[in-house]
Request: fold
Amino acid sequence: DPSSRAEDTAPTRLEAVRGDITRQSVDVIVNAANSSLLGGGGVDGAIHRAGGPEILAECRELRAGALREGLPTGDAVATTAGRLPARWVVHTVGPVYAVRTDRRPLLESAYRRSIEVSAGLGARSIAFPAVSAGVYGWPPDDSARLAVTAVRAALAAGPSSVELVRFVLFSDEMHELFAAELSRP
Ligand code: AR6
Reply:
């Protein structure tokens, strides 16, 4: 039917807001996790604190089953969102920034795989933090450019359930960088 076809091909809206990702009412919150999936600081710590023990319990189950070696850098996996307003948490692992090796493909992959996993769940809205831009040391300006480019490329791969991608940035500086990147054609 023509109306559902139009819906399938509607362009995904991209936006940047300053705020706390745990407070976002979206289908998917992306977690900047580490390969262990067993918690940490930054966004990861905030998500587990706000979401409660259910998320960690599901992460442990994944580690006992399909992800015995941990989640590889650049990949993504979904769990429940526990008490968060979101429906799912999609955990991804960005690379640690390195001066001497180009790890950009791994960071692009973290964004792409997060979108693929979210679309696989039928998610309509996704909130991303600036993956790798905290403890993992990615330079802020490159973080913004790469995130926006990678998300646009992943969405251009074909129609999906995803209608909204919201970057949620913790500082004014990061918010300005992401907003500037999104305002480029
Ligand atoms: N909402 C939105 N953004 C946040 C929040 C929040 N509640 N808290 C921090 N940020 P990081 P990474 C910003 O360090 O660099 C963990 O220990 C933060 O200011 O959370 O990928 C994991 O377990 C920064 O801009 O993630 C891993 O071991 C961005 O989110 C490791 O850190 C990402 O910072 C992953 O490091």
Notes: The first helix runs from residue 2 to 9. The longest strand covers residues 13-18. The mean pLDDT is 95. Helices lie at 2-9, 42-51, 53-64, 104-120, 140-156, 172-183.
